[in-house]
């Protein structure tokens, strides 16, 4: 599992890129704070990324992040997928809650697996704070699919 608290780099930390390197938006899905949101997100991701060799793991991690947004914020949020080039994808869940998530020290029948799953199956993941809330994101894909530490910059 990646070492928490180590920044993954300026572009990953801020989610902002120079105009010449800006990623292409592949997918966008606003969702409300209802129990159907994770299922709708999974179905939409499956349709949008049906060609991806990482579809199963992306779908699993999307389900975890959308579930976290619904359960822990109780507010509207949005899911975005960005094409970083070279087969790399960045998946983001934007919500209006200002609390920084972290993996729970224990897991049990009521949860605690979400960020552990994201950490174990993504190349990189983290949280970027925004004026109105935060973005929890992960990256997958590409030929250099090595794991980096999560970005927990605020």
Question: Can you give a write-up of this model?
Answer:
The chain has 154 residues and is of the alpha+beta class. It has one domain: 2-Layer Sandwich (Heat Shock Protein 90). It contains 4 helices and 5 strands; from the N terminus they run αβααββαββ. The protein has helices at 10-14, 37-48, 55-73, 114-121; strands at 24-31, 77-85, 88-95, 124-130, 133-141. Strands 1-2-3-5-4 form a 5-stranded antiparallel beta sheet. A hairpin with a 2-residue loop joins strand 2 and strand 3 (88-95). The longest helix is centred in the middle third of the chain and has 19 residues, at 55-73. The chain is globular.
Summarize the helices and strands and which ones pair or pack.
Layout: H1 10-14, E1 24-31, H2 37-48, H3 55-73, E2 77-85, E3 88-95, H4 114-121, E4 124-130, E5 133-141
Short structural description:
With 154 residues, the protein is α+β, with helices and mostly antiparallel strands. It has helices at residues 10-14, 37-48, 55-73, 114-121; strands at 24-31, 77-85, 88-95, 124-130, 133-141.
Beta-strand percent range:
25-35%
What characteristic shape results from the CA principal axes?
globular
CATH top level class name: Alpha Beta
State the end-to-end CA separation.
Answer: 21 Å
How many domains make up the 3D coordinates? 1
CATH superfamily: Histidine kinase-like ATPase, C-terminal domain
CATH architecture: 2-Layer Sandwich
Strand order of the largest sheet: 1-2-3-5-4
For the structure shown, list the relevant keywords.
5 strands; disordered N terminus; 29% helix; five-stranded antiparallel beta sheet; 154 residues; Heat Shock Protein 90; alpha+beta; disordered C terminus; globular
């Amino acid at each position: 599992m990646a070492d928490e608290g180590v920044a993954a780099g300026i572009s990953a930390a801020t989610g902002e890129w120079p105009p010449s390197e800006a990623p292409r938006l592949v997918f966008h899905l606003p969702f409300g704070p209802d129990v159907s949101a994770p299922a709708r997100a999974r179905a939409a991701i499956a349709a949008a990324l049906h060609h991806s060799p990482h579809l199963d793991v992306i779908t699993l991690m999307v389900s975890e992040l959308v579930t976290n947004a619904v359960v822990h914020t109780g507010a509207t949020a949005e899911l975005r997928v960005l094409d970083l080039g070279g087969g790399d994808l960045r998946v983001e869940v934007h919500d209006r809650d200002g609390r920084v998530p972290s993996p729970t020290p224990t897991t049990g029948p009521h949860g605690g697996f979400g960020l552990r799953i994201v950490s174990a199956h993504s190349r990189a993941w983290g949280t970027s704070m925004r004026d109105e809330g935060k973005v929890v994101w992960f990256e997958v894909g590409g030929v250099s699919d090595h794991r980096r530490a999560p970005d927990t910059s605020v």
